[in-house]
Amino acid sequence: MAKLPIKTFYQLNEENKTLLLVLLANTLIENLTKSDGYETAKISLEKCLDWLVTKNITAYNLYLYLENMDYNSVLHYMSKEKDCEKLIYWNCVSNALAYTIKKAYEFEKAHDFPQAIECVDNNTTVRIKKTGTARISGLA
């Protein structure tokens, strides 16, 4: 995978930045195939891609993949993970999902965000990009 300098990454428009982060997480998710919740994580990233292309899923419905009361969300499965290596991948998936959700709420012109989304910012994107590209390149 070719390196994308962080300066170039910041120059991407928000939609392309979000797409890159979701695709990066989608590449890394293969490291979670044996984990509980893999299917939920995979579907959540598919929904992110769907939202980027069609905008036909609400921010709230995307959010339910991140966190819900049914014990089947990405954050629930992430909290159950015991393997520290796999937690890094879960983190990339959850951050890519959270960043997409934030963009979806902004697209809907929302004024209030769920608490887990309020703290999402450009630092989130940098963490995903740095961790993800290092993992794909075999540097970490």
Helix-residue proportion: 55-70%
Total tally of structural domains = 1
Number of strands: 0
Quote the average pLDDT. 86
3D architecture notes:
The protein has 140 residues and is mostly helical. The protein contains 8 helices and no strands. The longest helix is centred in the last third of the chain and has 24 residues, at 84-107. It is globular. The mean pLDDT is 86.
Question: What's a concise summary of this model?
Answer:
By secondary structure, the chain is an all-alpha fold. It has one domain (20-137).
Question: Secondary-structure blueprint of this entry?
Answer:
Elements: H1 6-11, H2 14-28, H3 38-54, H4 59-66, H5 74-80, H6 84-107, H7 115-118, H8 122-137
Structural key phrases:
about 140 residues; mainly alpha
